[in-house]
Design brief:
heterodimer, A: mainly beta, four-stranded antiparallel β-sheet, B: mainly beta
Chain lengths: 116, 115
C-alpha cells in the first residue's frame, strides 16, 4: 500500500538554527499539505499545494517559514531561524485533488521537532 | 469561518463498553465530514467519512452519521477494545477558493480503554 514518506522522523535543534523537513507524497497525488500539530491540539494547515503552485499559505509564518514543491512531486518545509515555540509535530499529507470536498487526505508519520 | 467542536477528553472506558465521541460543526454549504485516528507517535489515519446528509460512514466497528439538522457527526462503537486507545479527530472539508478545499480539524479526543 502506497504511503506518504517524511524525513527525518525526529529533529532536535537549537533556537536560531535552520531546519528542513522533506515529504514525498503518494505517487500521482496532485495536492500536498503541510500541517503543524502542537501537543494536545488538532493539526493546523500551514500550506497547501496543487501541483507546484501554492493555493493556501494564509497560516504560514512567512517571516521564518518557507515551503516549496518545485516539480510538483516532493516538497520541503524550512524554518529559519527556529524559535522555541516551533516545537511541534509537522505532518505532511497528500490527496488526489480531483474530487474537491470529497478528497481523502493521507498522512505521513510526521516529523517531531524539538527546539532547545 | 468554518469550525469543528469535539468533546473534551480523556475518555476512559472498560473493554467492551459503548463509545460515543461527540462532534459538531459550523460551515457554510455542505461539507464532507471525516473521523481520523492517531495512534501514539504516528500520523493520522482515516477512520471513516460521510459526504452528504444522512450518510453513515463505518469502518472497523466504528460508525458516524452525518446529521445536517443538528450539524453533528458523532462517532460510536458498540464494544471498544484496548487496541482502540488513541486520539480521535473530527474534521470537515471546507471551501477556501473556487474549487479548492481544506480540512478543518477539531482538537481531538483521547480515548483510553482499560482491560
Amino acid at each position: 500500500e502506497a504511503e506518504v514518506a517524511q524525513s527525518p522522523r525526529y529533529k532536535i535543534t537549537e533556537k536560531s538554527q535552520a531546519v528542513a523537513f522533506w515529504c514525498d507524497p503518494i505517487s500521482g497525488h496532485a495536492t500536498l499539505y503541510w500541517y503543524r500539530q502542537i501537543l494536545g491540539q488538532g493539526p493546523e494547515l500551514l500550506v497547501q499545494f496543487q501541483d507546484e503552485s501554492v493555493v493556501d499559505d494564509s497560516q504560514l509564518p512567512k517571516d521564518r517559514f518557507s515551503a516549496e514543491r518545485l516539480k510538483g512531486v516532493d516538497s520541503t518545509l524550512k524554518i529559519q531561524p527556529a524559535e522555541l515555540g516551533d516545537s511541534a509535530m509537522y505532518l505532511c499529507a497528500s490527496s488526489t485533488g480531483g474530487t474537491g470536498e470529497f478528497d481523502t487526505q493521507y498522512f505521513g508519520p510526521g516529523t517531531r521537532l524539538t527546539v532547545l | 469561518g468554518d469550525s469543528v467542536t469535539q468533546m473534551e477528553g480523556p475518555v476512559t472506558l472498560s473493554e467492551e463498553a459503548f463509545l460515543t465521541i461527540n462532534c459538531t460543526y459550523t460551515a457554510t454549504g455542505y461539507p464532507s465530514l471525516f473521523w481520523y485516528v492517531q495512534y501514539p507517535g504516528e500520523g493520522l489515519q482515516l477512520l471513516l467519512k460521510a459526504t452528504k446528509a444522512d450518510d453513515k460512514g463505518s469502518n472497523k466497528g466504528f460508525e458516524a452519521t452525518y446529521r445536517k439538522e443538528t450539524t453533528s457527526f458523532h462517532l460510536e462503537k458498540g464494544s471498544v477494545q484496548v487496541s482502540d486507545s488513541a486520539v480521535y479527530f473530527c474534521a470537515l472539508s471546507g471551501l477556501i477558493t473556487s474549487g479548492t478545499y481544506k480540512y478543518i480539524f477539531g482538537t481531538g479526543t483521547r480515548l483510553k480503554v482499560l482491560a
